[in-house]
Amino acid sequence: MKEKIADLEEKARRLRVAIVKTLHKSQSGHTGGSLSAIDMVCALYFHKMRHNPQDPSWEGRDRFVLSKGHAAPALYVTLAECGYFPSEDLMMLRRLGSHLQGHPDSKGTPGVDVCTGSLGQGLSMANGMALGFKLDGKDNRVYAVLGDGELQEGQIWEAAMAAGHYKSDNLCALIDSNGLQIDGDVSKVMNVASIGDKFKAFGWNVIEIDGHDMGQIISALDQAEAHKGAPTAIVAKTVKGKGVHLFENKASYHGVTPNDEELPEALRCLGCCD
Amino acid sequence: MIATRDAYGEALAELGGENDKIVALDADLSGSTKTGVFAKKFPNRFFNMGIAEANMVGTAAGLASVGKIPFLSTFAIFAAGRGWEQIRQSLAYPKANVKVVATHGGVTVGEDGGSHQSVEDIAIMRAIPNMTVIVPADGEETKGAIRAVAAYKGPVYVRLGRNKVANVFPAGHKFEIGKGNVVVEGKDLTFITTGLMTAQAVIAAEKLKEEGISARVLHLGTIKPLDKELVLKAAQETGAIVTAEEHSVVGGLGGAVAEFLGEECPTLMKRVGIYDRFGLSGKSDELLKYFGLNAETLIEQAREIVSRKK
Q1: B147 shares its domain with B225
Q2: Which residues of chain A have pLDDT under 70?
Q3: B126 lies in a domain?
Q4: A31: helix, strand or coil
Q5: B95, B21: one domain
Q6: Please, what are the domains in chain A?
Q7: Is B154 found in the same domain as B13?
Q8: How many Cβ atoms sit within 10 Å of the Cβ of residue A86?
Q9: Same-domain status, B79 and B192
């Protein structure tokens, strides 16, 4: 297990490097929220989810919904690392003609099942998938990554109510609670605390973790799968911009990319000598 | 005479027996939208989402993503209005195979008043890329349309009404998405109509015949994609167009026809519809008369436009 965790941590480090390089190249995109979510996305794709990069539409696959679609770079570097498409494609992020749109687009990117980016809509889609699998008696699981600022959207709570009502225990929401949004602290812009209590009130199983502790992430994902009769919300305390001190805990890095001056230091922080 | 929503309930329940991928969702209005008929027959495949339309649209997108063919229903004002951005992002953008079947379109909602009368849904649905917009004239066409949209892969908006409407089409009418129907032949002008206004146009055409005016009635059950061939033919052959819809004249059928003909074949035109205002409470037939959504208005407009041709 220790070895597994170390492997995933190393994988996550490499994915962070890819995020930084991709965003430096594109000079457009969301750095902070990609770096805060990447450990969870990494654990899902390289540990928890059943999926097949050689056959992206394989029926037996678990589903992933990046409800906080602006963290698309985190998803794209992971999909590339899995082999869904060549890593070179990352250098075309947000460019005209690229399949890597600013926010995830299922029409063009292998491994992306739904279009997200307009906040608040992903959890509804994830629950629709979960209901569909239940209806067919299938054991596919559905994972959705949400932002904490995103929880200000009313539709999230409509979806939370519905998933609780339908006891969608094949659904797991991971809340990337980095505490920051575009205009500043989530608690000051529009306080969403206590996130765990809110999901509990809608009938969810709630697990609170450190969203950068790979051991805790894996354990929470296992607990979520084992929990029957209710969907699980993993409320993960994270650091926006995690891994690069230049970007950490800075709301200003929500939608800002590393510039030429910052790139060497960012890569050095991530243990990258390239 | 049957309400299009009743025809929908019947058709959906029938289709449900033929294809187990069909599921239905409703937002606490299943008795009114008639998805309740399906729900009774296939309780496992019916999802009541409560009074939460945004989530209903997203849930339908998720169901479609795992291979289901979701039909979601509520009143037009809530489907197209409350759910607009979800329909845009979660359905139309990814081309999700979801059918939004909205009942209680237009002013014939009646007593509930302007808050519940959708007079702009055709326009706002039509503006979304990838969307198909269908407004059947009667029960038979509705049954055909529901069958056709179930077989079509992609997002569709179908607008139905609350009240019983006169039959325009015979039993077993085949509906083809994007194809209009010349219901009455004529050469002096063409009524291009949709929804319940088609039956009114047929009445108007009969009365105009007595005055020596030969009016064609072209019913467009599909507003998007527009049947450009039949619209162009009507413009070229009759030289005068009167559109009619139970909807705002802004952006609906009249808007679609005017946009197309303005570029392709500028033609004398009149639009019958609601002139940029909200509805109000009253009995359905009173409201239709109040807003001039009847054969009498069509006859007046026909006389005027034919006189302008000379």
Answers
A1: no
A2: 273-274
A3: yes
A4: coil
A5: yes
A6: 2-269 (3.40.50.970)
A7: yes
A8: 9
A9: no
Task: Say how many CA atoms lie within 13 Å of B77 toward its Cβ.
Answer: 17
Output the pLDDT for position A255: 86
B27, B157: one domain: yes
**What is the maximal distance between C-alpha atoms in chain B?**
63
pLDDT, tens only, B198-219: 999 999 999 999 999 999 999 9
Please report which helix (H) or strand (E) contains residue A115, including its range.
Answer: none
Length of chain A, please?
274
Could you tell me whether strands A180-181 and A171-177 are parallel, antiparallel, or unpaired per DSSP bridges?
A: unpaired
DSSP state at residue B175: P
Catalytic residue check, B259: no
Residues B158 and B82 in one domain: yes
Out of B137, B165, B193, a domain closes at: B165
Based on the domain organization, do B107 and B251 belong to the same domain?
no
Structure tokens at A10: 């190393």
Q: How many domains does chain B contain in total?
A: 2
Interchain CB distance below 8 Å, A127 and B85: no
What ipTM is given for this predicted complex? 0.96
Please report the pLDDT score of residue A142 as a whole number. 98
Q: How many CA atoms lie within 13 A of B196 on its CB side?
A: 27
Judge if B15 and B157 occupy the same domain. Answer: yes
Domain extent for B7: 2-165
Give the integer Cα–Cα distance in Å for A63 and A100: 19
- Return all residues near B18 (Cβ < 8 A) that are at least 6 apart: none
Within-domain flag for B54: yes
- HSE value, Cβ hemisphere, 13 Å, CA-based, for B267: 30
At residue A164, what are phi and psi to the nearest 5 degrees? Answer: -65, -45
Q: Do A129 and B65 touch (CB under 8 A)?
A: yes
Q: Quick one: pLDDT at residue B210?
A: 97
The three-state secondary structure class of A146 is strand
Residue B103 reports pLDDT greater than 70: yes
Q: Which of B14, B18, B53, B120 is catalytic?
A: B53
Interfacial A residues in 131-170 facing B (CB < 8 Å): 131-133, 135-136, 140, 142, 154-155, 158-159, 161-162, 165-166
CATH of the domain at B281: 3.40.50.920
Helix, strand, coil share of chain B (percent; to 5): 45, 20, 30
Candidates B298, B134, B273, B142; CA nearest to B211 is: B298
- Dihedral angle, C-alpha A157, A158, A160, A164, nearest 10 °: 140
Question: Are B47 and A166 a contacting pair at CB < 8 A?
Answer: yes
